[in-house]
Amino acid sequence: MKLLSVHVLVLAALVWASLVSVALALSRAQYASALDKSILFFDLQRSGRLPSWQRLRWRGDSGLNDGRAQGVDLTGGYYDAGDNVKFGMPMAFSIAVLAWNAVEFRDSLRQTGQLGNTLNAVRWGTDYLLKCSARPNELWVQVGDPNNDHQCWERPEDMDTSRTAYKVDTNRRGSDVAGDTAAALAAGSVAFRGIDNAYSNRLLVAARRVFTFADRYRGKYSDPLGYVVCPFYCSYSGYNDELVWAATWLYKATRENSYLQYLQRNAYSLGGASQTMNVFSWDNKFAGAQVLLAQSVMQGVNGLQAYKDRADGFICAVLPRSISNSNQLQFTRGGMLWYMGQLNLQYVTSSSFLITTYARYLSASRRTVNCGGRNVNAAQLLGAAQKQMDYILGQNPKGLSYMIGFGRNPTRVHHRAASLPSKRARPGKIACKDGFNWYNSWNPNPNIAMGAVIGGPDQGDNINDNRGNYAQMEPATYVNAPIVGVLSELAAGRRY
């Protein structure tokens, strides 16, 4: 009996110690390490002839003939996730958000030594978007046939699948992807202002032109191009949110009345001032535009209050019930914000980014946000975002970090380049079907998908470490892009 009680006490002590270790906050140095890795992930996704400043050395050149068959240069840009297709819609969103990070958290990124790396990642994307939008009333929006690509499991350096390029124009309209591209170019313009003004101006000129095209020739790009963009990146939410998103960034980039008046005049017809969202994603950008416009309201700009009201609604909807009486979403028992079973962490990172951004705005204007009768301050918002970051980085029931290369990770990431031997390790070509020998293996990936934030665990805080489980095990640029600013604030030790 005495021996049993000793075992019980020891067990209780171990459980308590485990819980304490989970509850301990990460250090600034750990956040700084995660920040560095989160940006490094864009090296993994890079297409084209790799630059001299490429830090991830086991990747090689790829997609060097992209666009050639159509008589255009479409080399460069990023692969969206674990495949070898360049999808314009999520790419533009990722670049816009990454540029927003460079604008909003410039001081923290500079303090942590990551501003240059962030801007390098942005520029690689905006350079590509400039190529895609070089001709008036025409925008190249995709390179590669995903149906063909998904029949193979091969390194980007070995690609021999179709690299057909697809575009929208005055006949095959795509206001959504064009609006997305205009927003990315405008956000990039703001990010490079004061650093490379000539480049900033070039981006702004392109952003204006692409937005005019998007607004004048309205339509969803998945109508004419559904056979290659669906079901992967269909425009489920339509194009109104992208028009608002683009106009918002052009207003921020120019402060011109024409864009302000566009937002005021179309506030309800496009839905930006009437729809309260609980999601910010590659498909639906309303919440991002609303948060940006809320800052303008806090700075004294008139005629945008309805957008701020919707931004308040988003913030209150995604906060936990312990803070907000207006919560609309579930949290797992381990504390993760829960949206859906496929790449759930994309919504966790994007929501955390907007929460942190809003915290900055509230702090600067000395305001709070009212969530169902409870006033929530900037410090509470940052704390809520920090809890989500901590969960991703290993403070969860499984003790697993879902950022690869940081902490203890799952080992079979759904990613072609990471799951196959690098060209350095195996110079010979790995053919289309031969790659499935590695895909079906239970061995860990031979390469570390450094910095990749994967889809993440299920509603029970569990994850199936299986390469075929793309819903949980695949990373994407739009999962990583929003996390950069949040980590930079935590690494810099910001307090609101």
TrEMBL record:
Record-annotated Glycoside hydrolase family domain positions: 31-487
Residue ranges of coiled coil: none
Keyword DNA damage: no
Signal peptide: 1-25
SUPFAM superfamilies: Six-hairpin glycosidases (SSF48208)
Claim: Lipid biosynthesis is one of the keywords in the record: no
Reactions catalysed: Endohydrolysis of (1->4)-beta-D-glucosidic linkages in cellulose, lichenin and cereal beta-D-glucans
GO BP term (any one): cellulose catabolic process
The EC number(s) this enzyme carries: 3.2.1.4
InterPro entries the record matches: 6-hairpin_glycosidase_sf (IPR008928), 6hp_glycosidase-like_sf (IPR012341), Glyco_hydro_9 (IPR001701)
Pfam families documented for this protein: Glyco_hydro_9
GO molecular function annotations of the record: cellulase activity
Family of the protein in this entry: Belongs to the glycosyl hydrolase 9 (cellulase E) family.
Official protein name in the record: cellulase
Source organism: Ceratodon purpureus
Lineage: Eukaryota, Viridiplantae, Streptophyta, Embryophyta, Bryophyta
